[in-house]
Design goal:
Length: about 280
């Protein structure tokens, strides 16, 4: 897909996020929206996947370490064809396969259950090591939050990945600057993220605008070329990206929009999509 086509799809993914969270009357829109562009890029351009055969052996794997942003992952999976887009309306409902955090049991396209913050990167490291031991060629991607990397297990996983030279691993950090309690640098600063990961033998790629498709394309192309060490892509993003009243507002970390707010957000995204169609 071209960058413009990916931008248009990211708008649809954002609509899906809001639709699901609104229908559930609960969920985490802020971090889902900040990561909507990378979800879109991964599932529509980067990863070797097949919606018709979600368990194919040579598929690339993805682990959503910041599992509370499942609405973003579910929306990307739905629009990619893993399950009907209409299923997004069942988010967090009793009996739905779309629960508040990803579950591998019933949802096509989910490679690992996640939700306990700090643990997903370790799971991804295990997958990458498995591929190396068995001689398989798939790549493993994992998305962590900048608040999440305050967890110590993240750094144990990073130490192991660097030591084992897992160049089939790509750690993505969604650096939107906000977590549930406020700004990450005021809660427990993880900075400098890049220097810390470099110390654990990662090749680090800093992306100044992690909501820009051209920048994502460049970063992932560079990551694929790295040999002999894992890669970390640090994305500077905007929490709540795409919905003006949510952008950079910490309160939208884990709150659903009411009917009026939902209508306003969907109207704004509809206009954004129409503007892209004029290009």
């Amino acid at each position: 897909m071209t960058d413009l086509e990916l931008q248009k799809m990211a708008v649809e993914v954002r609509k899906g996020i809001l639709t699901g969270v609104h229908a559930a009357k609960a969920g985490h829109p802020g971090g889902s929206l900040s990561a909507a562009d990378v979800f879109t890029y991964l599932y529509f351009e980067e990863m070797n996947i097949d919606p018709k055969n979600p368990q194919k052996a040579d598929r690339d794997r993805f682990v959503l370490s910041k599992g509370h942003t499942a609405p973003g992952l579910y929306s990307a999976l739905a629009y990619r064809g893993f399950f009907p887009v209409e299923d997004l309306l069942t988010l967090r409902h009793v009996g739905s396969h779309l629960q508040g955090h990803p579950c591998i049991r019933n949802t096509p396209g989910i490679d690992a259950a996640s939700g306990s913050l700090g643990q997903g990167v370790s799971v991804a490291v295990g997958m990458a090591l498995s591929a190396k031991i068995s001689g398989e060629g798939y790549r493993v991607y994992t998305l962590a939050g900048d608040g999440e990397i305050q967890e110590g297990q993240i750094w144990e996983a990073a130490m192991f990945a660097g030591y084992r030279k897992l160049d089939n691993l790509c750690l993505i950090v969604d650096n939107n600057g906000l977590q549930i309690d406020g700004a990450v640098d005021e809660v427990c600063s993880p900075y400098p993220i890049d220097k810390k990961l470099e110390a654990f033998q990662f090749h680090v790629i800093n992306v100044a605008d992690g909501n820009d498709m051209a920048s994502l394309r460049d970063a992932f192309a560079r990551a694929r070329a790295v040999k002999g060490q894992p890669t970390a892509i640090i994305l500077k993003t905007v929490k709540g990206k795409g919905v003006s009243y949510m952008e950079n507002v910490v309160g939208w970390h884990g709150k659903a929009p009411n009917d009026e707010q939902y209508a306003a957000a969907m109207e704004e995204l509809e206009k954004a999509g129409e503007a892209l169609c004029q290009k």
